[in-house]
């Protein structure tokens, strides 16, 4: 049932929001947007944060999330640029889902997700920015909370039903999952459709202002609407009320007219960085063939060469990977350094791997991709203390960093003489399990850590506090 991801997207994007105030002053180019979210109370903020984190865990549990630090960083950079034009606070995060369907959605608390199919179908980064800006506008205008107020909390039931549908579909019951989602919506759509379509027009309008203020071409939002309309035309037989925000010709026309009224932004004729990002995404998502990549590489296309090197690296063919990557080294692209490190790691050339990544990481210590690649090398070298120092600062910024917790778990396991080795392994594992959606396993790991730490008062108090939080959040339902 191939239309399932599209239905999921159109439903979620129409019923979600985020509303934490942002303390910084507006930039000189910041657009004038209705400030709907800043006046909400602490309880509303806590509820939206809980919903966003709950969906974050559920999505990681049920959907094929791509765990690639470099990819996450590239898309989060675009996402952050758009967020900087709003008054929103720190988001829960951004995830990339391995799915060829064109889809993206936002969730209360500031969780944003996009499918690899959306990336593969885009012609430039501005089109992706347009989709992100539209979703950010849903969040900034608190469409979820406004819908909940208007329809007496029924949108919470709708979101819960959608999550159940995702779970069923992920387990192989595609038709059944779609039926759950559609059934959940059926009783509400006739009441909410007009309200949702008004929200869609508002998200289009405000999102276009956001993307323009962030330096992206507003015409690209209209361009991508047309791409999406063509891609979803195969499901046009569905009644409109199943879709909370169908891409009508009126909506597409309004987007084009609005873009034409804004100052022109110079088109990017060719963006090598976007081409690298696009083809690398397709390789990681297994949506590019070796023949496609070889055809690009044969033209000395940098994106094709880097993507083909990544393809061979993932295949374990390090000789071919090295030969291909050598042809792209003159480009100086950061991804080349990461791939070269991977090739050395695959060949167990740990000294060369360290030399390759350490110098680059030292010049850009705030870059998570370089830091985590260095952490991977250090783990292989048994330098667990350096890994802990390197990774902990990223965990401090983002406690939902699954890869970071996994690195800390591996580092703690290498600390053979550490008095709290077993305790730390268990509590780090618990965090990785928890944010991956395995809440029950996480609580079991933390309970085990609690028993082992009973003679250490400080550690026991720390574990007790976190364990109670996990247990309380698990009991709460959307």
TrEMBL record:
Keyword Oxidoreductase: no
Residues at the catalytic site: 135, 204 (proton donor)
Record's signal peptide: 1-19
Sites where the protein binds Zn(2+): 134, 138, 200
Subcellular localization: Periplasm
Ranges in coiled-coil conformation: none
Peptidase M48 domain: residues covered: 93-256
Xref: InterPro entries: Mito/Outer_Membr_Metalloprot, Peptidase_M48, Protease_BepA, TPR-like_helical_dom_sf
Swiss-Prot/TrEMBL keywords: Hydrolase, Metal-binding, Metalloprotease, Periplasm, Protease, Signal, Zinc
Named cofactor requirement(s): Zn(2+)
GO molecular function annotations of the record: metallopeptidase activity
Enzyme class (EC, first level): hydrolase
One Pfam assignment: Peptidase_M48
Primary location class: periplasm
Cofactor binding, per record: Binds 1 zinc ion per subunit.
EC number per UniProt: 3.4.-.-
HAMAP family: Protease_BepA
Function of the molecule: Functions as both a chaperone and a metalloprotease. Maintains the integrity of the outer membrane by promoting either the assembly or the elimination of outer membrane proteins, depending on their folding state.
Family that this chain belongs to: Belongs to the peptidase M48 family. BepA subfamily.
Matching PANTHER family: METALLOENDOPEPTIDASE OMA1, METALLOENDOPEPTIDASE OMA1, MITOCHONDRIAL
Record protein name field: Putative beta-barrel assembly-enhancing protease
Organism expressing this protein natively: Acinetobacter lactucae
């Amino acid at each position: 049932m191939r239309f399932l991801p599209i239905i999921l997207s159109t439903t979620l994007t129409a019923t979600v929001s985020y509303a934490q105030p942002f303390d910084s002053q507006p930039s000189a180019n910041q657009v004038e947007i209705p400030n709907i979210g800043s006046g909400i109370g602490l309880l509303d903020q806590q509820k939206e944060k809980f919903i966003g984190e709950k969906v974050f865990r559920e999505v990681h549990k049920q959907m094929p999330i791509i765990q690639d630090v470099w990819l996450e960083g590239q898309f989060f950079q675009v996402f952050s640029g758009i967020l900087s034009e709003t008054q929103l606070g720190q988001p829960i995060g951004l995830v990339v889902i391995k799915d060829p369907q064109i889809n993206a959605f936002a969730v209360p608390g500031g969780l944003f997700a996009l499918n690899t199919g959306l990336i593969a179908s885009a012609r430039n980064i501005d089109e992706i920015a347009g989709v992100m800006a539209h979703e950010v506008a849903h969040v900034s205008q608190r469409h979820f909370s406004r819908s909940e107020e208007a329809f007496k909390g029924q949108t919470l039931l709708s979101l819960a039903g959608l999550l159940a549908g995702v779970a069923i579909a992920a387990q192989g019951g595609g038709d059944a999952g779609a039926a759950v989602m559609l059934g959940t919506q059926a009783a509400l759509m006739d009441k909410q459709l007009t309200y949702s379509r008004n929200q869609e027009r508002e998200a289009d309008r405000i999102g276009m202002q956001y993307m323009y203020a962030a330096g992206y071409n507003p015409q690209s939002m209209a361009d991508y609407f047309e791409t999406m309309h063509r891609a979803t035309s195969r499901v046009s037989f569905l009644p409109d009320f199943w879709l909370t925000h169908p891409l009508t010709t009126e909506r597409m026309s309004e987007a084009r007219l609005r873009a034409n009224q804004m100052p022109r932004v110079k088109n990017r004729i060719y963006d090598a960085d976007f081409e690298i990002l696009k083809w690398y995404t397709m390789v990681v998502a297994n949506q590019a063939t070796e023949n496609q990549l070889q055809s690009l590489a044969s033209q000395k296309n940098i994106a094709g060469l880097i993507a083909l090197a990544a393809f061979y690296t993932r295949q374990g063919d390090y000789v071919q990977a090295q030969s291909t990557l050598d042809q792209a080294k003159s480009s100086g692209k950061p991804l080349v350094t990461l791939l070269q490190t991977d090739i050395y790691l695959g060949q167990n050339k740990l000294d060369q791997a360290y030399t390759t990544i350490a110098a680059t990481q030292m010049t850009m210590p705030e870059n998570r991709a370089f830091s985590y690649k260095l952490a991977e090398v250090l783990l292989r070298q048994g330098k667990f203390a350096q890994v802990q120092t390197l990774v902990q600062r990223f965990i401090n910024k983002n406690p939902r960093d699954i890869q970071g917790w996994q690195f800390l778990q591996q580092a703690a396991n290498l600390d053979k003489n550490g008095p709290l080795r077993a305790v730390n392994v268990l509590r780090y594992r618990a965090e990785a399990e928890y944010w991956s959606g395995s809440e029950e396993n996480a609580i079991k790991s933390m309970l085990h850590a609690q028993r082992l730490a009973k003679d250490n008062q400080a550690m026991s108090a720390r574990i007790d506090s976190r364990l109670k939080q996990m247990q309380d959040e698990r009991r709460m339902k959307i």
